[in-house]
Amino acid sequence: MKEVIAIVRMNMMNQTKKALTEAGVDAFFAHEATGRGKGFVNPQVLAGAEDGYEEAASLLGEKGKLYPKRLITIVVEDDFVDSVVESIISVNKTGKPGDGKIFILPLGDAVRVRTGESGMKSIS
Amino acid sequence: MMIMIRAIIRPEKADAVLAALMDAGFPAVTKYSVAGRGKQRGIKIGEVTYDEIPKTMLMSVIQAEDKDFVINTIMNTARTGTKGAFGDGKIFINEVECAYTISSGVKEGAEVAA
Predict the structure, then answer these.
(1) CATH code of domain A2-122
(2) Nearest C-alpha of chain B: how many angstroms from A77?
(3) How close is the nearest chain A Cα to the Cα of B28, in Å?
(4) Looking at residues A98-116, what average pLDDT do you find?
(5) pTM for this one?
(6) Strands B2-9, B53-63: parallel, antiparallel or unpaired by DSSP?
(7) Is the ipTM of this complex over 0.85?
């Protein structure tokens, strides 16, 4: 059993939901979050600053700004991890910084509250 | 190996911790608001008990060898006063098997066990 934590763009949420359903994942949990990444510089802003535009130059100092994101948590069986990751990447990839991250964490156990089932039964 | 650090801290300390992490060279962080209580069972003021205290969760995935440094950075910044106080928060560590960067599709970390 694995826990897949994905951080994606806000406006990609609908497509991501659709893609996950098509990949066979019905259950997931989403959370509003803000975050920042490695802090890559926007090439357009950098070019503007080199040309001497003051507005662009002032934007360059804005390091560490937090951007709104969506945090999705999915618990899946081990075999499903690759297909889930693939479907998230295929939908969310624009190729620009800020597309997000996916983390895979090992998960010991899960329990379904309604029936008390644990282990694989609780997520299938 | 990579690890995930999840720190529950006071909301008013979040900006200071984020700045400290940036200066320490760990810019990548995700922040979200949570509510919770700790071992002290919330705060009792007069007759009223507050057991859903607003906190901020900071999540960051880093290399395992940087663990102690990052934990110390967060702890020293998030602590109130010199000794610290109840409600300063907790830090939890998880193993991360692998991480994908969506924009490039690059995978880091160990192979996922099939």
Answers:
(1) 3.30.70.120
(2) 9
(3) 4
(4) 90
(5) 0.81
(6) antiparallel
(7) no
